[in-house]
Specification:
The chain is α+β, with helices and mostly antiparallel strands. Helix content is 25%, strand content 34%. It has one domain: Alpha-Beta Plaits. The mean pLDDT is 93.
């Protein structure tokens, strides 16, 4: 299994905008090898907010297939040159291969 994690840091009060963006229906759900997408919001009292987006794929090959797909590339080209939202501070991306998973014994 292969996982892509995005850690998106935004100014206070704007995490919900990112949550909504990644929670809506999209092309990803129709891609071969796509398992699921999880959106998590870090609990903070005050200050910058974090949203983690975890996308799980059956394999790295399926993820690469998505990255090279016409739909994915067209989406990025459509946003080329557009400024990032002013509330967005940072967007970090990491890619991981799952090595172990524990599940309940019963």
């Amino acid at each position: 299994m292969f996982v892509q994690l995005r850690k998106i840091t935004v100014t206070e009060g704007n995490a919900e905008k990112v949550v909504q963006r990644f929670s809506g229906k999209g092309m990803l759900e129709e891609q071969e090898g796509f398992i699921d997408l999880t959106v998590m919001e870090k609990k903070v009292r005050k200050g910058d907010e974090e949203v983690i987006v975890m996308i799980r794929w059956e394999s790295e090959e399926y993820w690469k297939q998505w990255e090279k797909s016409e739909a994915h590339i067209a989406n990025h080209k459509a946003n080329l040159g557009k400024p990032k939202p002013e509330y967005m501070i940072q967007n970090e991306v990491g890619k991981y291969e799952i090595k172990a998973v524990k599940k309940p014994a019963n």
